[in-house]
Structure formats: structure tokens, C-alpha cells
Amino acid sequence: MKKRKIIRIDEERCSGCGQCIPECPEGALQVIDGKARLVSDLFCDGLGACVGHCPEGAMTVEERPAEPYDESRVMENIVKAGPNTIAAHLAHLKAHGASAYYDQALVYLRKHGIPVPGDRPPETDSRRLPCGCPGSEVRSLDPAPPASPAGSSPGLRPPSPRVERGGVRTSTSRPLSALRNWPIQLALVPVTAPYLKNADLLIAADCVCAAHPGFHSELLAGRVLIIACPKLDDAEHYLEKLTEMFRQNRPKSVLVAHMTVPCCHGLTRLVRQAIADSGATVPLAEVTIGPDGRLIPED
């Protein structure tokens, strides 16, 4: 059993006033025999919204072995209490930066056809992220990529001829950018983004985009892009999110592009595990880029 943050109640200090109960829409707390009790580790997210509402200071957050928090089980209780409780729970998760739990809650609601408080109408629902940031608006750019020359590898495409124009090297035979979608950062891409359906995905480590000079023409052309850093980002959250992406969207293929440094290889392991956990059958390929931007041949 893994350690995680969870609520601890000091029974000697607890007066049983119940002021903590409304602050826990997850249903993890109840007043039993005159004391507040944590009724199930499964329902406690450990974010501590109830702590500041205890007048006796009887509640703290500790780290101990506990059953994993189960957002799906929590949502079963949340939806029974109605839209106001659903809204309070979602606001609670957003306020504490619990993006993985928030995404799981939205997946549960949409899977069961339950309206998400504050959602836009269906025709625009998939166009924006819950944060409402205009820069995160979901868009399909869909440039027309060139066909692969005869005899070229289906995984890689040769760079297009380039000319110098005003000090900027531009392509003579294709658009400057092969980007087909926005946003591209895994943390910002909604699981329900329409461009993910049956797509050929390129999941690239952040540094690949800057290091490889033929990134657009050789790797990205014809693919939907997702970027992530397996070292600096939340890998556990990404595993959950990628798993749900593969489960819902069933991409046609995935190409993982990473740098030579050992930590960057974790991106391939993350994607491979997510595919396995999703139950989808997705062809997976990978390419490695050196710090000098060159493609490293496979052994």
C-alpha cells in the first residue's frame, strides 16, 4: 500500500460540531458517536479543504499508507447530491490544482451523460478547456502535408527544399508549419479533443522540437502533436491522462520522439504503459534525437 496525504483527526480535540462535514463533498467524513470520523480512505483526496474549518484544530494532513483515492467512487456519491454539490466538488479540485482528479471527474460525468456545471453548449463544449483561457482553445489547424516520396520510410519524411527569405529559412514546397492542432502540451490537451480521434499521434519530448531541425517536415507532417517532459512533469497524471486518451480515441498510430538522455526514454515507457492500460491496440514506434539534433540510428 503506497503512502499518500490523507486527513488525520485528533479525537481528543474533536468536539463533534460537524463544521468540517459540508467542506467535504467527497463524503469522506461523518460524525459518528459524537466525533468526526474518516469513513474511508477511498473517499479522502488528502487536499485538506476541511482542515481550515475545524474550530478546534483537530484536523491535519498527514502522509501514511492508505488505499488509493478513487475519484469514480467519489463521483457516485457526488452526483446523488445534485448539481450544486457537483459544482462544489469540481471547484474544490481546481482550487487545489488536482488536475488528474478533475479530469477523472469530467470523464465520469460525461460518460454517464451528467451535465458539467458551467459547461458551454454541446456545439462549443469541446472547443475550450475548463480554465477558459483563450490561449487554450481547442483548434484543428489541419495543414495539407505533402505526400511521402516513393521509397521513403513511413515513419520519417525527408526535409523539403528551403530558401533564404529576409534572413529566415522557409520552405518552397510546403507550409512553414506542419502543426495540425492546438493546444499541444499534454497538460492542456483535453481527453475529448476532436483531433485525437483515430489520429496518427506524435508524442514528443519538449526538447525534441527545438533540437531537431527537420522536426516539422520529417516527424510532424501528417500527425497530431502532443508534447511532454517525462522528467519535469507529473508522470503519474500523464499516465492516467494518456490511458484515457487511448481508451476514448483509439489512435491509428503513435510515434514517440525523445532525446538521448536516459530520463527522456521514460516517455516511451509512459506511452507503452498507457496503451497497455487502455486496452487499445495501437502501433507504437519511437525515434531518438541527439543533442546536436541528428537522428540516432536504432541498434
Assigned CATH class of the largest domain: Alpha Beta
Oligomer: single chain
Mean pLDDT: 80
CATH arch. level architecture of the largest domain: 3-Layer(aba) Sandwich
Give the CATH topology of the largest domain: Rossmann fold
Overall 3D shape: elongated
Instruction: Output the number of helix runs.
Output: 8
Going across the major beta sheet, what is the strand order?
A: 10-9-11-12-13
Radius of gyration: 23 Å
| Binned strand content | 15-25%
**Mind describing the biggest β-sheet?**
5 strands, mixed
What letter string, H or E per element, gives the SSE order? Answer: EEEEHHHHEEEEEHHEHEHEE
- How many independent structural domains? 2
Give me the secondary-structure category: alpha/beta
Distance between the termini: 39 Å
Low-confidence stretches: 120-131, 144-155
The tally of beta strands, per DSSP, is 13
Question: Which percent bin holds the helix content?
Answer: 25-40%
Notes on the structure:
The chain has about 300 residues and is an alpha/beta fold. It has helices at about 70-80, 85-95, 100-110, 120-125, 205-210, 215-220, 235-250, 265-280, and strands at about 5-10, 30, 35-40, 60-65, 140, 160-165, 170, 180, 200-205, 225-230, 255-260, 285-290, 295. The strands form 5 sheets. A 5-stranded mixed sheet has the order 10-9-11-12-13. Strands 1-4 form a two-stranded antiparallel sheet. Strands 2-3 form a two-stranded antiparallel ribbon. Strand 6 (about 160-165) and strand 7 (about 170) form a beta hairpin. The protein is elongated, with a radius of gyration of 23 Å. Mean pLDDT is about 80; it is low at about 120-130 and about 145-155.
